[in-house]
Each structure stands twice: as C-alpha cells, then as structure tokens.
What we know:
Type 1 dockerin domain, five-stranded mixed beta sheet, globular, 3 domains, alpha+beta
Amino acid sequence: MNNGFKIPTLLGIGVLLIGLFGGVFLVTKNQFNVFKTQAGVSAEPQKITVANLSGNSASIYWQTDKAVPGFVEAGPGITLGLTFRDDRDEGAPKPYLLHFVTLNNLSPNTTYYYKIVSGANTYPAQPLSFKTLESVQSFPNSPLIGQIVDENLQPVGEALINLSIPGNSNLATITKISGNFILPLTAIPDLTSNPEAVLTIFNGEKSSKINLKLPFTEESLPQIILGKDINLVALESSPSTSVSIKNDLNGDGMVNALDAGIVFNNFGKKGPSIIGDLNKDGVVDQKDVDILGKLPN
C-alpha cells in the first residue's frame, strides 16, 4: 500500500495548465520583443536630398537605419525607366547606411521623376521630382579636397559631405574608404565675391561644421576630425598680432588654414617638440585646436 502524498487530479491538471500558459506567454513575449526590435530598424530612405544640380546631372543621397543595397529609378516621365546605382558600386549593389547616387546624361531644363529602391522595397509610393538647370555649363573652379578621420585619427570610410553656398544649390559628395573626398565646384558660376560657405560632414552618428571662404586657396582642407568644428574664416582673417605670430607654424606671418592643417595632421602625436603643440604640454590635442579657434578676428 502506497501511503505517499498524492495531488488531487483536478489540482494537478490546474498546475499543469498554469505552467503551460505561462511558458507560452513568455515565449510569445520574447518573440514580440524581438519583432519590435527588428521592426525598429528600417530600410526606408530618410533625409532624401537632391544636390549637385546642373544642366545634365544631379545627385541624390539618403540614409537608412540598417545597411541595405540601394539605387535610383528615374526618368522624364512617371514611368521612370532609367536605373542609376550608388557611386561606389562597381558591380552588384552593396549594402550601405549612407547612400549616394549620381544621375548622369540628363537633359537640360527637364523635370525628372524618381523613386528609391532600398533593400527589397521601392519608396515612395508616388515618385519625387527635381528639375535640371537650363544650360550645361562648367566653370574652372578648383575642387575642395580633404580627409575625414575619427577621434583616433582613423579614416571615416562612410561620411556625407554637403556644401551650402548662399544663392547656389547644395553640392555634395561621399568619402572613399580612405576617408578622402573631392568635391567639384565647377557648377558655381562666380567665386570672385569670395562667398562664405558651410561644409557639413556627417555619418549618422557625428557631424562637423567647417566655415570657409571660397575659393579655398590651399591645396587641401586641414584634416577634419568628425565631431569637431573648424572656423577657417576666423583663421584666415586673423591679423599678424603678437598672438598670431606666436602660433604661426609655417612662418608666413599669418595664422590661417595652413597652420590649422599642421595641427590636425599632427593631432594625437606626443613628444617634447611636436609641431602643433601650441600650449607645450607634450601632446597635440583639442586644447591646441581651441587655441587656434580663440585667436582674435
């Protein structure tokens, strides 16, 4: 005879059901949370921008929450018909977070409609549009050349560069894997008035703003650390005072973009006599950048 304690049949069934429903609830909840997390990461294009408008070309750039392949379908009618791939794609489309597509061989003074194919879907439902300029004309302006690095001085291989000039449409490009970029200025008709411009660099996480005057007379911009701003207008206008002479690193009697370039090219270097160590603390760092930025105008 078994005198062991037995759970009544109905009570035992109730315990089993509670455990079963509890397990199903937890599994369902976890699956729902995973779905929510994945649903929050979208391939839908964001911040769609048209730049580099000319008589026969235009550029379109955008961002996505996750890295996906992308290209543009465009045409002079809403049926589109033309396909343009990312400037960096040499074969099959590759996944990017930042997308940059140039549309070439367009007709002047023509409205073009376009949609963006991002991942497996096409956006938006109704096509967007832009209009090319009336004539195909190029001006002999030197390009802006530079390099984008992170705070550890490593190249930023995916960053968008946008140049805003009063009275002109925006110009834009994207960095190469090495962090280098070349931004043509041949679409700007007149730089004799020395307009002030703003160069904005961003990669979805950090951004930098560079104030400068055009035409930029140096061979290249100073190395740009993403997340740091530079006011080259203030540096170029700094007079040859005792303060500016003290920090004139290249000996031309002025503190200007050349001196800023020396500081940024030596950023992070340590030693007793590193060029660019303006406060003489043994390292070229943000303090030295700040010294240049605080020079009198």
